[in-house]
C-alpha cells in the first residue's frame, strides 16, 4: 500500500490500543495540527483509523478577572470600606465610603451593582449600610477567582467551581469559556495489518510552486487530494462594520426607490436646524441642555436675508389668512448660533429652500443617511450620536397613505413587515406619526422613527408650493430589528460585542 507522507507519519504515531489526540499526533510527527487533521480525515475515509470527536470546554480568567483575583472584587472592597466607616451600625453617606474604598471609574458601578445582590448590605437614597453577618471569605465568586488565579486555559472538568458561580463570572466578563473540538484517533484492524505488510510513502505535492511550473516537473508529480472538510486555522480579518454595511444597503434601497442623496454640514446654524422647521425659539429642545453648541465659531456668517425675513414673519404672524404665529420674540442672532445638528432635517430645509442645489421641481425625492448628535442619557437604546435615515418626497398631492405605503415598501426590503404607526406631534408636520417595529427576540415594540407631512408654516417661507412628506428614521434601531441585539452599545464604542460584529452576516 502507498500513502502520502503525512498519512504514513500519522499511522506510525497512532496506536490500536489507545486513542491519541490530534495535538499529541502533531507533536509526535512534527507536523502542523491542520496537516494532521487533514491526514486523519483521509485515513478515516480509507478505513485505517477510527476518529472520536468531543467538545472540550476550557476556562481562563480575563484581564479584569485577573485584576480582581489579585486585589479583591470591587463589591468586597466597598463592603470593607463600609464596615470601616461603621455602616454596620448606622447608614453612611455613599460618597464617603466610595472615597475611602479607593474604587475608581467603572469599578464604582460594578461594586454598586453587585453589593446588594450578594447581601453585603443596602444602598438607598445615597446612603449605604453594611450587613455585619456577610462574610467576604464565603463569597463564591471571590473564591472561584482565587481558585483560578495563576492558572491559564484550564479544562472545565479540572476547575472546582460550581456551574452557577461560573455562569455569573462569565456574565461579569471575569472568565472566558472557550470550546474546542478534540479529535482522538485509534488505528483500525486494517491499519494494523497494512502496517505489518509495510506501507510505502508516496511522494505527493501539496502545493504548486513557480519552480514546479517553470521546470515542467508538475507534469510528473502526484498531487495530494484536497480535503475541504478539514479544520483550518481561524482567521479574523478586517471587516466592514455592520452599521456601515447596513447604511450602504439603506442607501442602495432608497436609490432603487428613486431617491437622490443630500449632503451638508454636521455643524449648522440653528436657523437651518430649527427655525426653518417652524420650531419656536423657546421650544424646550432648543435650550442649552439639549444641544451641543460650538465654542468657536459661535455663529454662522451667511444666511439668506429674504429667507430669514420670511421665516421670522411665519414665526411671528403665521402663514395664510387664518395664520397664527407664536406671538413670542424671534431673534436673528439666536438663529445664527452654531451647533451639532440634532437631526438631519437641517439638510432637508437647506435643500427645500433652494439654497443648496437651486430650486427643486416636483416630483422629487431626497434622502440622507448621516450622523446626528443629541444630549441624551446613555442607555440600551440611546447614544449621544446616531445615524438618521432622513427622507422626503415632494409632489402635487400627497396623503398619509403615501407616507405609510413608502415605509411599508422600505422596511419590507429588510424583512420587516409589521410596522405600526402612532399619532404624534412635531411643530413642523401635520399630521405626524411615530413608527414602531417589533423586536425579534424580546417581542417589545421599538420606536424606529418619526414622520409627517410638512406644514404650510414651514413650507411657505421656504418657497415650496406643493406637498412634502418627510421622515427621520434611526439606522441603529433598524439594525436592532434586523439582527436582534438588545443594547445599542453592543455595536458601538468600547463595550461593543466583537463576536457579534465579527459573525453577523449582512445579507443583500
Ligand atoms: N426630525 C425628526 C424626524 C422627522 C423628519 C421630517 C419630518 C418628520 C419628522 C426627528 O429627528 O425625530
TrEMBL record:
L-phenylalanine binds at residues 345, 388-390, 428, 454. It holds the Pfam family tRNA-synt_2d. Gene3D superfamilies: Bira Bifunctional Protein, Domain 2 (3.30.930.10), Winged helix-like DNA-binding domain superfamily/Winged helix DNA-binding domain (1.10.10.10). It comes from the Archaea. GO terms for cellular component: cytoplasm. SUPFAM superfamilies: Class II aaRS and biotin synthetases, Winged helix' DNA-binding domain. InterPro entries: aa-tRNA-synth_II (IPR006195), aa-tRNA-synth_II/BPL/LPL (IPR045864), Phe-tRNA-synth_IIc_asu (IPR004529), Phe_tRNA_ligase_alpha_bac/arc (IPR022917), Phenylalanyl-tRNA_Synthase (IPR002319), WH-like_DNA-bd_sf (IPR036388), WH_DNA-bd_sf (IPR036390). Its main location: cytoplasm. Keywords: Aminoacyl-tRNA synthetase, ATP-binding, Cytoplasm, Ligase, Magnesium, Metal-binding, Nucleotide-binding, Protein biosynthesis. Mg(2+) binds at residue 430. It catalyses: tRNA(Phe) + L-phenylalanine + ATP = L-phenylalanyl-tRNA(Phe) + AMP + diphosphate + H(+). Residues 250-503 form the Aminoacyl-transfer RNA synthetases class-II family profile domain. GO terms for biological process: phenylalanyl-tRNA aminoacylation. GO terms for molecular function: ATP binding; magnesium ion binding; phenylalanine-tRNA ligase activity; tRNA binding. Its cofactor is Mg(2+). It is found in: Cytoplasm. Its EC number is 6.1.1.20. Binds 2 magnesium ions per tetramer. HAMAP family: Phe_tRNA_synth_alpha2. Tetramer of two alpha and two beta subunits. Belongs to the class-II aminoacyl-tRNA synthetase family. Phe-tRNA synthetase alpha subunit type 2 subfamily. This is Phenylalanine--tRNA ligase alpha subunit. It comes from Halopiger xanaduensis (strain DSM 18323 / JCM 14033 / SH-6).
Amino acid at each position: 500500500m502507498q500513502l502520502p507522507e503525512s498519512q504514513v507519519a500519522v499511522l506510525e504515531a497512532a496506536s490500536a490500543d489507545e486513542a491519541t489526540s490530534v495535538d499529541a499526533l502533531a507533536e509526535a510527527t512534527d507536523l502542523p495540527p491542520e496537516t494532521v487533521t487533514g491526514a486523519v480525515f483521509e485515513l478515516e475515509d480509507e478505513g485505517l483509523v477510527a476518529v472520536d470527536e468531543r467538545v472540550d470546554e476550557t476556562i481562563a480568567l480575563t484581564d479584569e478577572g485577573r485584576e480582581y483575583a489579585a486585589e479583591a472584587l470591587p463589591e468586597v472592597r466597598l463592603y470593607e470600606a463600609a464596615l470601616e466607616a461603621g455602616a454596620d451600625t448606622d447608614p453612611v453617606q455613599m460618597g464617603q465610603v466610595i472615597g475611602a474604598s479607593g474604587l475608581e471609574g467603572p469599578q464604582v458601578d460594578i461594586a454598586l451593582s453587585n453589593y446588594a445582590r450578594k447581601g453585603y448590605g443596602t444602598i438607598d437614597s445615597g446612603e449605604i449600610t453594611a450587613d455585619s453577618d456577610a462574610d467576604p471569605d464565603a463569597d463564591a465568586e471571590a473564591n472561584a477567582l482565587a481558585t483560578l488565579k495563576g492558572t491559564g486555559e484550564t479544562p472545565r472538568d479540572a476547575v472546582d467551581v460550581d456551574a452557577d458561580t461560573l455562569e455569573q463570572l462569565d456574565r461579569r466578563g471575569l472568565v472566558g469559556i472557550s470550546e474546542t473540538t478534540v479529535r482522538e484517533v485509534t488505528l483500525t484492524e486494517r491499519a494494523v495489518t497494512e502496517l505489518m505488510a509495510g506501507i510505502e510513502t508516496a511522494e505527493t505535492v501539496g502545493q504548486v510552486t513557480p519552480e514546479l511550473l517553470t521546470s515542467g516537473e508538475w507534469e510528473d508529480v502526484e498531487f495530494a487530494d484536497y480535503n475541504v472538510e478539514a479544520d483550518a486555522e481561524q482567521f479574523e480579518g478586517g471587516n466592514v462594520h455592520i452599521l456601515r454595511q447596513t447604511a450602504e444597503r439603506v442607501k442602495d434601497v432608497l436609490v432603487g426607490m428613486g431617491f437622490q442623496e443630500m449632503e451638508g454640514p454636521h455643524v449648522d446654524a440653528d436657523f437651518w436646524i430649527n427655525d426653518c422647521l417652524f420650531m419656536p425659539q423657546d421650544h424646550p429642545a432648543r435650550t442649552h441642555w439639549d444641544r451641543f453648541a460650538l465654542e468657536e465659531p459661535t455663529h454662522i456668517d451667511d444666511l439668506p436675508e429674504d429667507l430669514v425675513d420670511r421665516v421670522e414673519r411665519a414665526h411671528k404672524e403665521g402663514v395664510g389668512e387664518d395664520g397664527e404665529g407664536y406671538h413670542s420674540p424671534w431673534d436673528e442672532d439666536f438663529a445664527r448660533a452654531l451647533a451639532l445638528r440634532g437631526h438631519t432635517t437641517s439638510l432637508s430645509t437647506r435643500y427645500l429652500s433652494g439654497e443648496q442645489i437651486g430650486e427643486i421641481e416636483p416630483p422629487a425625492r431626497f434622502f440622507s443617511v448621516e450622523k446626528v448628535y443629541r444630549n441624551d442619557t446613555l442607555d440600551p437604546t440611546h447614544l449621544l450620536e446616531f445615524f438618521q435615515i432622513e427622507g422626503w418626497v415632494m409632489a402635487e398631492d400627497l396623503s398619509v397613505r403615501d407616507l405609510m405605503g413608502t415605509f411599508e415598501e422600505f422596511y419590507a426590503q429588510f424583512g420587516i413587515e409589521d410596522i405600526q404607526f402612532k399619532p404624534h406631534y412635531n411643530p413642523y408636520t401635520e399630521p405626524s406619526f411615530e413608527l414602531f417595529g417589533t423586536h425579534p427576540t424580546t417581542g417589545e415594540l421599538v420606536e424606529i422613527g418619526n414622520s409627517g407631512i410638512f406644514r404650510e408654516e414651514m413650507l411657505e417661507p421656504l418657497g415650496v408650493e406643493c406637498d412634502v412628506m418627510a421622515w427621520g428614521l434611526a439606522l441603529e434601531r433598524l439594525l436592532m430589528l434586523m439582527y436582534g441585539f438588545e443594547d445599542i452599545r453592543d455595536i458601538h464604542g468600547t463595550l461593543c460585542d466583537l463576536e457579534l460584529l465579527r459573525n453577523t452576516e449582512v445579507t443583500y
